[in-house]
Amino acid sequence: MAKHLDEQVARVPQPSLDYGPYSCVWGDALPQKVWEDGRIISVHTLIAVAVNADDTLAVRRWRVRRPTPA
């Protein structure tokens, strides 16, 4: 499922944070468990949300990533 999600995420336009100014930028990583190749794995959904000068809230970026092994 994580591979399937990666393919879907790759098709979604990822707006740049270069088009500011932003009064607030918030980032988070949400841990999730998903099925992949018949087993459960951990992934993180990374998200960046920004509020621009007009107080418009927008999701600027999001990605699904596997955590790096320790």
Mean pLDDT: 77
Instruction: List SSEs in N-to-C order.
Output: HEEE
Relative helix content: 10-25%
The biggest beta sheet, please? 3 strands, antiparallel
How many individual domains?
A: 1
Report low-confidence residues grouped into runs of 5 or more: none
Kindly name the structural category.
mainly beta
Report how far apart the termini are. 23 Å
What proportion strand? Answer: over 45%
**Total count of helical runs of at least 4 residues:** 1
Q: Radius of gyration in whole Å, from Cα?
A: 14 Å
Q: Widest sheet: strand order?
A: 1-2-3
The coarse silhouette is elongated
Task: List how many beta strands DSSP finds.
Answer: 3
What is the compact description of this entry?
The protein has one helix and three strands, in the order αβββ. It is mostly beta strands and 70 residues long. It is elongated and about 45 Å long.
